[in-house]
Amino acid sequence: MMARTPDIEKAVEVLRTGGLVALPTETVYGLGANAEDPVAVARIFRVKGRPPSHPLIVHIGGAEHLDDWVQEVPATARLLAEHFWPGPLTLVLRRGRRVPLEATGGLETVAVRVPDHPVAQALLSAFGGGVTAPSANRFGSVSPTTADHVRAELGDAVDFVLDGGSCEVGVESTIVDATGDIPSILRPGGVTREDLEAVLKCPITVPSTSQVRVPGQHPSHYAPRARVVLVEPEKVVAEAELAQELGHQVGVFLPPSLTDASVKVHAVVALPASTAAYARGLYGFLRELDQRGCDLIIVSLPTEEGLGLAIANRLRRAAGPRPTV
Ligand code: AMP
Ligand code: MG
User: Fold this and answer.
1) Which atom of ligand 1 is nearest to the CA of 30?
2) What is the pTM of this model?
């Protein structure tokens, strides 16, 4: 669904008056505020229940505006911006003075991205400034990929929801630290490692998933209500049926190679064959199994190539230990 111009005008008005706008991007829906308004930015953290030390991404309308938001743009960052913007790549660079410390969790670096979604583009161009936005969900839970997900999760806590249909990519952006000469991946996402390496003409490092970057951040993230358990691909069916027999309401992600199998569990998601479709559907599948009343989700990790790297990263985090309350 395409947002109408009156919706864009309304969203701009909300941003200008310090409000929060949920906006569609090609990755997931964001919870946006005027990046230069520290009070509005602080509200994002309150609404999400996100620790203030956890930095946000500043969304801008085009690569030509990058120099307004950062101190310097190293040649490698320029190359990556030229190749992948607009698109699901976030560059971490040295913070320019326009960016308040509230948006960077107190860091002297800032994460910047140009989203590739017509509604986000229309909003950024009509607004003229930067929109800082994390995913439009409560901290730690599954990211929203439709406007309905946002409404269900945040309700009245967001002042206006721009509806731009379902997100095409479905997982968050790839975050690259581009402050130095040798870039590294901080979080795998919509731009694949292979695509980055083809442009950089050298290998790029990816952190191990267990690495927790931000102080106070819990290992569990992107998590549905149901507990997520990772098992080897050949054990998915047996483990799922066993857990169901033991009294759990089990949901299972069934790989395409097993779609013929009849699995005696509460709910089955038949995974699509392509990793792009898997990434697009991932968060919706997790939400669906929650809605169907599952308390346990059994899944195996995909091969960590292409978008499989980002999917595996999100599933590992979803399966991470939960905070005890
Ligand atoms: P989210 O918007 O919730 O998908 O998360 C934004 C991600 O960007 C988080 O994983 C942050 O740790 C990361 N991030 C944002 N700014 C920076 C920064 N200056 N340095 C390193 N990571 C950042
Ligand atoms: Mg998020």
Assistant:
1) 2
2) 0.95
CATH 3.90.870.10 applies to domain 5-200: yes
Q: How many Å lie between the centroid of ligand 2 and the Cα of residue 139?
A: 7
pLDDT at residue 210 tops 60: no
Say if ligand 1 is within 6 A of residue 61 CB. Answer: no
CA distance linking residue 300 with residue 206, whole number of Å: 21
pLDDT at residue number 321: 86
CA–CA gap between residue 173 and residue 187 (Å, rounded)? 8
Q: Answer yes or no: is the C-beta of 147 below 6 A from any ligand 1 atom.
A: no
Which ligand 1 atom is the nearest neighbour of the CA of 95?
19
Rounded to the nearest angstrom, the distance between the alpha carbon of 143 and the centre of ligand 2 is 6
Residue 312 CA to residue 310 CA, distance in Å, equals: 5
Q: Nearest 5°: CA angle at 323, between 23 and 214?
A: 60
Gap between the Cα atoms of 228 and 298, Å rounded: 6
Residue-averaged pLDDT of the chain: 94
pLDDT beyond 50 at 49: yes
Tell me which residue has its CA closest to atom 7 in ligand 1: 56
Q: How high is the pLDDT of residue 214?
A: 45
Q: Coil, strand or helix: which one is 81?
A: helix
pLDDT at 3: 59
The domains of the chain are located at 5-200, 227-318
Pair 119, 24: CB distance under 8 Å: yes
Tokens describing residue 196:
């980055």
pLDDT of residue 324: 62
Please, where are the H alpha helices in the chain?
5-16, 38-48, 75-84, 101-104, 118-127, 147-154, 193-200, 236-245, 275-291, 308-318
- Cα 93 from Cα 105, distance rounded (Å): 14
Residue 236 reports pLDDT greater than 90: yes
Hunting for tokens 């979803």 — which residue is that?
318
Fold held by 227-318: Rossmann fold (3.40.50)
